[in-house]
Amino acid sequence: MSTFDMLDPSPAPGSDEEEVVRDLIRIIFEQIWWVIGIAGAVIMMSVFYAKTATHIYSADALIQVETPNASTSSAAAISALSAAGGAPHTDAEIEIIRSRTVVEPVVEQFKLNFWTSDKRMPYLGAISHVFAHPGKPLPAWFGMQKYAWGGEIFSVDSITVPKALEGVPLTLIAQGNGRYTLLDADQRVLLTGAAGESASAGGVTLVVKQLVARPGTEFSVTRSNQLDAVLGLAGGLQVSEKGHDTGIVQLSYSGVDPKAITAITNAVALSYLHHRTERAQEEASKMLSFLNSELPHLRDELKRSETALSEYQARVGTFQPTQEAQVYLSGGLQYEKEIASLRIQRAQLLQRFTADSLEVQTVDAQIAAMGREKSRFEDRFKTLPGTEREALSLQRDAKVAEEVYVALLNRIQELSITRAGTVGNVHIVDEALVPSAPVKPKASLIISGGTMLGIIAGIGFAIVRRKFLTGVADPDLIERRFRVPVLGSISYSVDQARADRLAYDRKQAALPRAQGWSRLAGPAMSNANSLSVLMRRVMPRLPGATVASTAARESTVVLPGEHAPSRPLLVKMNPFDVSVEGLRGLRSALQFGLVDAPNRIVCLTSPAPSDGKSFLCANLATLLSESGRRVLLIDADLRRGRLAQYFGSSPEGGLTELLTGQIDVETAARATGVDGLHFIGAGAYPPNPSEILASSRFAHVIHRLEREFDIVLVDTPPLLAVADAAVVANVAGSTILVMRAGVHTERDINESLKKLRRARARIIGSVMNAMQVKRGGRYGAYDYAYVHTYTVTPPDAETKDV
């Protein structure tokens, strides 16, 4: 197989990326209204959702958790006491905020263990509530009395139900004048009552604070389990630390009511603050009680140490320690203070843990280690005189007792202040304020996202529609994608369509009266006779023919007379039509394509029926004959051949009869009334058209005819429907694929080309038929402009300026 390469005077094509971008832009502009429509619909839906969706607000509060610092006057003892009761880590504080102890008082305060709602019609209810005023219920739309359409007021003060009804939605039906009926899930009446009064029955107690609604309006009341309500609020709280190790905790709560969530957020913060204050006061009370119990013992120890030191000084006199003695005194003093702090810490731990606990054993180990260190330290000063060591020990004991006693007194004062609530380590930095804008849905984000999604969806639909739902209408795409040159683009002819419609209407009107073929004498018969004489003189006997004997000639089919054409030729009806100019361009391209062809047989086929192949063949053959060429047009569609309608030829005595030996070539090839154009019709429709065309007689006949004519055009059935076209394309020296613009998908065209290549057809190009003429568009714009300018004014109407 070889292909005819057309000389393309257009600029060299760009890169694949540029072609893809150009194709995409072309697809968008071709289907711009689809893109705009889909994008507009998506944008409208996003706007509708942004305006009607439930608005969620968020209230935030900041809490600071501080670590208490030890007093500067209480050295080791205070450090020990602070270590035992120090502030918890921020993560622990976050969990405390979510604890039931903090959350449950808020649940009780705001009655979050039950909730109420009105029954609304989806979407319509949201729209109707926009036009309602509280306290003035709107009439029911469409007679739906049970729905709340806006203006209703309903609030419940309290409700208690048995365990079996916890979490079960109960239906409250307004009866008018503030009265109501409460039903369970099975629509059984639980109780009846009136607003402002307590109603009880069957373990259910309900207090409706206010009820303003149309009679028949339904509301829902649900009493949840207390634990579920607490966990629900705790789960809705968002608690996190801002930054790292900052001690600043952010408390957030979201909901539909800005004022309610603000109040709940502040209530949780205050509950946590009260909890921490109470806990600090409780810890301070316990510590204060412990220190007060230790205070007498330390006081006695201090007095005993001071008395011993005074008696020693009275007996010995004033003692002036040496430098080594001062080192011994300061070191021993430090060890004693450390040991005293550890003993206080151990005593405090024993109030919460047993002596065998890990915490107490750890402190015991520290005391033992400190005692060993003290013993080793004292062993270094054994060389000191006994009196000097005794004096130093008394001074050290008195000093340690005094410092521990003073530190204990300071700690008692601090704890007294803490217990009074004047000092705390938790502060509310920022209270929650009523939010002015919802956190979701974010209208600007939704609308902008909907706009982008709408544009993408519109473009995506245009691409999918162009790729799978509509056919190819771009000749450049055919050449670029399938490497098949487009010999011509034939514009859609309105005149031809109108003429075909009128012919069809006349045929339908005359159908009941049609009893046979009208016999009209005319010059066509004389042309046929002259062709018969020419074929007898020049053409040798065809193989397989059975016309040698007189009996065979007598059995030849007798053809009826010619008929008036039932479909007009556009080249005769309107020779200046845009489609005719496209056909003239195709004629020129075809003549160039036949220069290196192995024969002058041209097969025209198409992927599917109704592609305008017969129209193309009839008019192209006429134009070729008008250029001075002898043309033979063959209708090889032995299934639904309609080419005879353009020439008024009889449907009998065509290619079928010729190939089956019923008539000879002289009889089959008829004149058409167009100089230089002869025609062989399809003839009778045989039961085996593919076998007839695949016979050797068809190849012999068509090659014999090709010697007597300059061009032989063969109209064939659709490629994708039957195999006849592939058989003819194998014999023909040139094959043209006719496609109707906007009808065939890329897959159809690809399959058609595959069939032709398997048949070893020589594809010289394709034709895009029925192109839509667009003044401002791309296809046919230039042809239309030139043809319109050149032919719109008749020659005799032109005038010259004098």
Please name the defining characteristics of this protein.
802 residues; alpha/beta; five-stranded antiparallel β-sheet; 26 helices; 15% strand; elongated; disordered N terminus
Poorly predicted regions are 1-14, 69-88, 513-561, 775-802
Relative strand content: 5-15%
Give the averaged pLDDT, no decimals.
78
Structural domain count: 4
Number of strands: 20
CATH architecture label of the largest domain: 3-Layer(aba) Sandwich
CA-CA gap between termini: 61 Å
CATH H-level homologous superfamily name of the largest domain: P-loop containing nucleotide triphosphate hydrolases
- Global shape: elongated
What percent of the residues sit in helical stretches (DSSP H or I)?
40-55%
DSSP summary: helix tally: 26
Instruction: Please name the CATH topology of the largest domain.
Output: Rossmann fold
Kindly describe this structure.
- There is one protein chain.
- By secondary structure, the chain is an alpha/beta fold.
- The protein has four domains: 31-53 and 441-469, no CATH class; 57-273, no CATH class; 286-425, no CATH class; 475-507 and 573-794, P-loop containing nucleotide triphosphate hydrolases (Rossmann fold, 3-Layer(aba) Sandwich).
- Helix content is 49%, strand content 15%.
- The strands form four sheets. An eight-stranded mixed β-sheet has the order 13-20-19-14-18-15-17-16, sandwiched between helices. The chain has a five-stranded antiparallel β-sheet with strand order 2-9-4-5-6, with no helix packed on it.
- Strand 16 (670-671) and strand 17 form a beta hairpin.
- Helix 5 crosses helix 7 and helix 18 packs across helix 19.
- It is elongated.
- The two termini are 61 Å apart.
- Mean pLDDT is 78; it is low at 1-14, 69-88, 513-561 and 775-802.
